Q: What sequence folds into this?
């Protein structure tokens, strides 16, 4: 082979960038082309509903890698280049900026926000442009309605209150479900919302949507109405797989992959767009979690370079609502939580137990140092792969 | 290798200080503090691991390792 091995990565969010970076960290010497469909540099999504909405961050503070940093890593980056079609036989990806040949392709096109209410003005929050537009308009909003009672919905509701709007948070599952923690802290989080003046409607369906005089009126199943000059839906996402139609890849609600992330020879998928098959259950599942996206990207990069096992990060998740910082480290499996006696001055530590062992810890507004110490409570058996590294470093 | 940290992006997860305590620490708010921007050869692997595990991608280790082949 005369030309160097070429890896093309479709999608320049956290999964795509991590894959590109890890290829280099593992000593990959070929070409790496990273394609992003937005006009921006690769950026992080977690701050969009946090620091961008609330702290007035300039958009460039969300940048994951600058052009210089990408260049230092030998990563060629192309923005505004959306993937349109895949031809696995010829090993080419067609993009809005032309066709690209690859030896290995990593599909990291992520997901888009699921919309609600057809062509009404109900918004979603997924991209930096969505976030800046929402921030701009929320400054003048009188009543904000958020549909979807999860982490993202809670963060937007919290930002709305901080900016002085009346806020209603609507859900249909009876309680708030909070990321990897699930419903274990629902009552605390609901109390926090109520304490900050958020009106909660957590067990209703929306029966109709009307727009009138700059307001959107939502008819609720309990006969009430929720009206907002801004309405945001946070009701999940849809994997961006439509461009793969006709490629021959197996697509369910996401790109179906084996347990190493391979969808077909030389084609891999990672992050929100991928459903990796669990080797024990045989089921292919899409996992929408940043740690999972990073883990899969690192694993696929390792497979491409040397086939060696990569190091999986311990799932970590954080949020900030009404000034309370919530951090979760480890695995929760929906178990009930125990409150742990803590000598720290502020905040509470919760732990999830499995067979008497701590599988995860949650900090409810603890000081950073106390939280960091508590991470060590997570039992060794859950963190074996992780610990190996610490030992290596101490040698 | 040169380590660069972006304190703006840091969310204080502390994973860097956990896997590479000789290179990273955290301040009282949990924000990353870089102890040494030029790791020794023996520390390079730990630096890469810290950069890889950072949930906020706040750590960059700059120039990549020389390709092995």
A:
């Amino acid at each position: 082979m005369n030309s160097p091995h070429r890896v093309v990565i479709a999608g320049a969010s956290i999964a795509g960038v991590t894959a590109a970076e890890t290829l280099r960290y593992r000593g990959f010497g070929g070409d790496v082309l990273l394609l992003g469909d937005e006009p921006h540099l690769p950026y992080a999504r977690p701050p969009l509903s946090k620091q961008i909405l609330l702290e007035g961050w300039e958009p460039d503070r969300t940048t994951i890698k600058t052009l210089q940093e990408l260049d230092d890593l030998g990563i060629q980056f192309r923005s505004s280049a959306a993937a349109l079609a895949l031809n696995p036989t010829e090993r080419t990806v067609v993009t809005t900026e032309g066709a690209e040949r690859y030896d290995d392709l990593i599909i990291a096109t992520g997901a888009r926000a699921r919309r609600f209410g057809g062509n009404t003005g109900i918004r979603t929050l997924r991209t930096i442009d969505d976030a800046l537009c929402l921030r701009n308009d929320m400054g003048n909003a009188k009543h904000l309605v958020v549909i979807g009672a999860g982490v993202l919905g809670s963060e937007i509701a919290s930002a709305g209150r901080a900016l002085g709007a009346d806020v209603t948070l609507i859900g249909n599952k009876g309680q708030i479900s909070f990321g990897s923690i699930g419903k274990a802290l629902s009552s605390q989080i609901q109390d926090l919302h109520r304490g900050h003046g958020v009106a909660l409607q957590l067990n209703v369906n929306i029966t109709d949507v009307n727009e009138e005089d700059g307001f959107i009126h939502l008819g609720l199943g309990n006969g009430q109405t929720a009206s907002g000059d801004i309405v945001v839906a946070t009701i999940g996402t849809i994997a961006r797989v439509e461009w793969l139609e006709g490629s021959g890849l197996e697509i369910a609600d996401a790109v179906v992959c084996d347990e190493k992330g391979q969808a077909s020879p030389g084609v891999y998928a990672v992050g929100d767009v991928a459903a990796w098959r669990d080797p024990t259950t045989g089921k292919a599942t899409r996992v929408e979690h940043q740690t999972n996206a990073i883990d899969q990207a690192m694993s696929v990069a390792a497979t491409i370079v040397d086939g060696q096992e990569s190091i999986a990060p311990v799932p970590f998740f954080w949020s900030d609502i009404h000034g309370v910082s919530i951090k979760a480290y480890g695995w929760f499996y929906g178990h009930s939580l125990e409150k742990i006696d803590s000598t720290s001055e502020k905040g509470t530590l919760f732990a999830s137990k499995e067979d008497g062992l701590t599988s995860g810890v949650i900090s409810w507004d603890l000081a950073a140092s106390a939280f960091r110490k508590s991470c060590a409570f997570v039992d060794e058996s859950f963190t074996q792969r992780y610990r190996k590294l610490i030992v290596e470093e101490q040698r | 290798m040169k380590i660069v940290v972006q304190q703006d992006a840091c969310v204080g997860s502390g994973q860097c200080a956990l896997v590479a305590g000789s290179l990273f620490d955290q301040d009282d708010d949990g924000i990353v503090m870089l102890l040494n921007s030029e790791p020794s050869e023996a520390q390079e692997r730990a630096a890469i691991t810290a950069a890889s595990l950072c949930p906020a991608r706040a750590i960059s280790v700059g120039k990549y390792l020389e390709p092995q082949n």
